[in-house]
Amino acid sequence: MKILFITEHRYIPQYFGGMQTTSDNLCRGLLARGHHVAVLASVMRNDIFGWRCSIQRKILRRTVLRDMKCGYPVWRSWSPSNEVEYVARKESPDIIVVMAMAPVRMALAASPTAIPVVMQLHDVDFDCHGGNFADLGDIPCVANSHFTAERYRRSFGVNPSVIYPTILAGDYKTTPTCDNVTFINPIPSKGRDIACEIARSCPDIPFTFVEAWPLRAEQRDELSNKLSSHRNVTLLKPQSDMKKVYRRCKILLAPSVCEEAFGRVAVEAQISGIPVVASARGGLPEAVGPGGILVDPDGPIDAWVAAVRRLWDDQGYYARLSAEALAHTARQDLSFDHQIQAWEGVLSGVAN
């Protein structure tokens, strides 16, 4: 099969997020199975890569550029929805997969090609659809969790297949030295304020906050102000090798106040037997399972502190949840080979 993935989001190497990492893993898995894959994404002039694309665009007088930096074709444009038909003619895909970021607008842009479309449902942020999802009708969908599938089923009447995010265990599996409590992506929606309060309440426990999504200037200033009195918190820039982060992690903190569609970081940590203290909201309970502790994000901070304290201080309890975390990630629906085969089944069924 020839598969074209399309999104209005930026893509690797300009942006590393859960959606991009999951999609890159999926593309590589499909390539290994003999399929042809390509991606259409956006590009922004906010880094060296973006400025190079801008210069190249002016020199070549093109509105969309193609590169092989990921090992497969990635087409990049300032307005991807305007380039769907052009890229589809160039790639001649059997099927188009629409990823997150304005997915409705992208799906409608693909409609004139008459190529079958599958929606890859990464989140439940309906305000970012770029249109009314109901206008797509009974479109084939793949959701990243049962939580996401049920939310779309109730809201739009679709019946998504569920395939968890593709995660290459070798990229994360390590032997933790258990030096700190790790919190990834310190922004408000991911529970920044809860994490800061937990760290303040546990001055004897080392915490590491790891940037993920690029912080705006005001977000960085606000975070710096919040952490100025937290001598037990180390702030790291975005990391290309997350294995190094998990190698020092004893507990992963995921106190999201938004509804996470799944919670990829929970699985990444649990691959190495790292328990997770997470919000009892959205898809996080599904991702964490028995390998962690769930806490109400609207409840008292004392409940969060107690959960972290118990895992940090009680060696027997920690060992039990660590074993549960390992077992939880060993199930078949998180097997990379199983996931790729499941995707093949969905794509071939729609393409035919």
Q: What structural keywords apply?
A:
352 residues; alpha/beta; Rossmann fold; 13 helices; 39% helix
Helix content: 25-40%
- From the 3D structure, determine the CATH topology of the largest domain: Rossmann fold
Largest sheet: 8 strands, mixed
Tell me the structural class: alpha/beta
Topology:
Blueprint (H helix, E strand, L loop, with lengths): L1 E9 L7 H15 L3 E7 L5 H13 L3 E4 L6 E4 L6 H8 L3 E4 L4 H8 L6 E5 L19 E3 L2 H11 L4 E2 L17 E5 L7 H10 L5 E4 L6 H11 L5 E4 L5 H6 L1 E6 L9 H7 L5 E4 L4 H5 L3 E4 L5 H13 L1 H15 L6 H16 L1
Parallel strand pairs: 1-2, 1-5, 2-4, 5-6, 6-7, 7-8, 9-10, 9-12, 10-11, 12-13, 13-14
Antiparallel strand pairs: 3-4
Write a structural description.
The chain has 352 residues and is an alpha/beta fold. The chain folds into two domains: 2-162, 3-Layer(aba) Sandwich (Rossmann fold); 169-332, 3-Layer(aba) Sandwich (Rossmann fold). Helices cover 39% and strands 18% of the residues. The protein contains 13 helices and 14 strands. The chain has helices at 18-32, 48-60, 84-91, 103-110, 146-156, 192-201, 217-227, 242-247, 264-270, 284-288, 301-313, 315-329, 336-351; strands spanning 2-10, 36-42, 64-67, 74-77, 95-98, 117-121, 141-143, 161-162, 180-184, 207-210, 233-236, 249-254, 276-279, 292-295. The strands form two sheets. It has an eight-stranded mixed sheet with strand order 3-4-2-1-5-6-7-8, with helices on both faces. Strands 11-10-9-12-13-14 form a six-stranded parallel sheet, sandwiched between helices. α6 packs across α11 (301-313). It is globular. The termini are close together. The model has no long low-confidence stretch (mean pLDDT 94).
